[in-house]
Amino acid sequence: MADCPHTIGVEFGTRIIEVSGQKIKLQIWDTAGQERFRAVTRSYYRGAAGALMVYDITRRSTYNHLSSWLTDARNLTNPNTVIILIGNKADLEAQRDVTYEEAKQFAEENGVFF
């Protein structure tokens, strides 16, 4: 998957879902995880009701950025913002570089959902 395109800057999408009979509009901002885009992407945290911190289970370098992403999310959103840690590419188990257990421990130690 080395040729998968990476987000450059920010990508945006909307989706309407129904929860308990009520329609909810989601605005999803996919911010680039690379350090060079950090100044741009930090501005998109403002007003967020939730943050999905996604790392690639086959690339430890993405997992190693979680602490700085979490610091940004906590400093730039309100205290009630829900933060969820997600490991993607779970279908590539044979190439896994970050264990489920260590990611779960990170989530527990930092008070985020996993």
UniProtKB/TrEMBL annotation:
Coiled-coil segments on the chain, per record: none
InterPro entries from the UniProt entry: P-loop_NTPase, Rab_GTPases_membrane_traffic, Small_GTP-bd, Small_GTPase
UniProt keyword annotations, A-Z: GTP-binding, Nucleotide-binding
SUPFAM superfamilies assigned to the protein according to its UniProt record, in alphabetical order: P-loop containing nucleoside triphosphate hydrolases
UniProt-listed Pfam families: Ras
GO molecular function, one term: GTP binding
Family label: Belongs to the small GTPase superfamily. Rab family.
Protein's name according to its UniProt entry: RAB14 protein
Annotated organism of origin: Buphagus erythrorhynchus
Gene: Rab14
